[in-house]
Recover the amino acids of this structure.
C-alpha cells in the first residue's frame, strides 16, 4: 500500500526509520532489529540512503527488499539527488520497480564540500518532478518545523516547501524537534499556505550527549529549557540519561497524540530497544 493511502485508513500512523549498516557483516545483525520492530506493527519503515549518498551503495534497496519481502512491512526508500545524475536516478527507480517498491522519500541530500555536486538536480523539488514523470510512485518529502538551516527565514522555507508539495509530494515527515509548540506553529503555517498533505512528527529519543550535540548542529533544532536541564543533570550518567531521554520523547509523543497529529515517525538509530520502550509507553494511545 502506498504511504499516503495509509493516512486515509487510520490516524495516527506509526513509522520507524533505520539506516543501512556501514559494514557488510553488520547487515546480518539488522534482522534482529527488524524482527523486534515488526512486532510493534509499524505502518511502514523508512530506510535512509546509503553511506555518503552514493548511488553505487546498494544497501538501501537491499534493506528495503528485506523489510518488504521478509518481514511484510511497507518500506519507504530515501533517495537523494544532489550527487546523482538522471541516469543514476533512473537506474535506482528501475531497481525499485523490479522489487515492487513504490514509496520514495525524495531528498536533496546534504552538501559535502569534498564531493562536487552534479548538475541534474539542484533541489528536492527537481527530483520530485522527475520521479512524478517517470512512474507511479508514492512520493514523500522532508520538512523542518524550525526552518531549514540554509533558508533565510521561515517565509522562504515555507515557500520552498510549498513548491515541493506542488511538485507532487503527498506526505511529509518532519526533522526532529524537541519543542512541540514549534511543530504546532509549523502546522498552522503550512495550512495557511494551502498544503493539504499529512505531516508526521519526527521524534528522536536522546540517549547520549554527543548524539544531541551532533543532531542539533546538523538540523538546527532548538533546545527548550526543560530539555537542557535534563541533559545537563544526567550527562555524566549514561543509564540515567537514557531513561530521561526516553521519558522526554514519550511525553512529547503523548502531547502530539492529544493534538491529533497525523502520525509519529521515530528515528530509531537502529536501536530496537529505543523503539520498543517508546511503543510500550504509548501502546494504549496509538
Amino acid at each position: 500500500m502506498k504511504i499516503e493511502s495509509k493516512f486515509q485508513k487510520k490516524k495516527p500512523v506509526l513509522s520507524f526509520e533505520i539506516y543501512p549498516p556501514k559494514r557488510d557483516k553488520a547487515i546480518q545483525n539488522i534482522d534482529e532489529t527488524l524482527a523486534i520492530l515488526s512486532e510493534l506493527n509499524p505502518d511502514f519503515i523508512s530506510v535512509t540512503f546509503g553511506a555518503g549518498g552514493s548511488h553505487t551503495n546498494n544497501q538501501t534497496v537491499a534493506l528495503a527488499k528485506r523489510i518488504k519481502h521478509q518481514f511484510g512491512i511497507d518500506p519507504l526508500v530515501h533517495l537523494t539527488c544532489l550527487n546523482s545524475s538522471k541516469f543514476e536516478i533512473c537506474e535506482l527507480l528501475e531497481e525499485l520497480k523490479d522489487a515492487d517498491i513504490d514509496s520514495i522519500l525524495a531528498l536533496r541530500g546534504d552538501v559535502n564540500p569534498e564531493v562536487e555536486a552534479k548538475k541534474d538536480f539542484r533541489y528536492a523539488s527537481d527530483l520530485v518532478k522527475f520521479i512524478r514523470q517517470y512512474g507511479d510512485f508514492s512520493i514523500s518529502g522532508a520538512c523542518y518545523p524550525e526552518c531549514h538551516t540554509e533558508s533565510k527565514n521561515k517565509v522562504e522555507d515555507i515557500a520552498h516547501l510549498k513548491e515541493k508539495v506542488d511538485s507532487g509530494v503527498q506526505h511529509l515527515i518532519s526533522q526532529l524537534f524537541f519543542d512541540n509548540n514549534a511543530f504546532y506553529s509549523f502546522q498552522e503555517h503550512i495550512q495557511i499556505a494551502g498544503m493539504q498533505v499529512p505531516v508526521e512528527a519526527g521524534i528522536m529519543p536522546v540517549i547520549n550527549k554527543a548524539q544531541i550535540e551532533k543532531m542539533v548542529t546538523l538540523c538546527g533544532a532548538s533546545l527548550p529549557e526543560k530539555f537542557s536541564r535534563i541533559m545537563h543533570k544526567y550527562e555524566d550518567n549514561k543509564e540515567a540519561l537514557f531513561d530521561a531521554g526516553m521519558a522526554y520523547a514519550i511525553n512529547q509523543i503523548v502531547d502530539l497524540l492529544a493534538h491529533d497529529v497525523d502520525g509519529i515517525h521515530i528515528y530509531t538509530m537502529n536501536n530496537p530497544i529505543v523503539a520498543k520502550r517508546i511503543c510500550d509507553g504509548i501502546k494504549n494511545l496509538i
User: Anything to note?
Assistant: The first strand starts at residue 13 and ends at 18. The domain at 3-282 is CATH 3.20.20.220 (TIM Barrel). Residues 238-258 form the longest helix (21 residues). Strands lie at 13-18, 44-47, 75-80, 103-107, 138-143, 171-174, 199-203, 263-267.
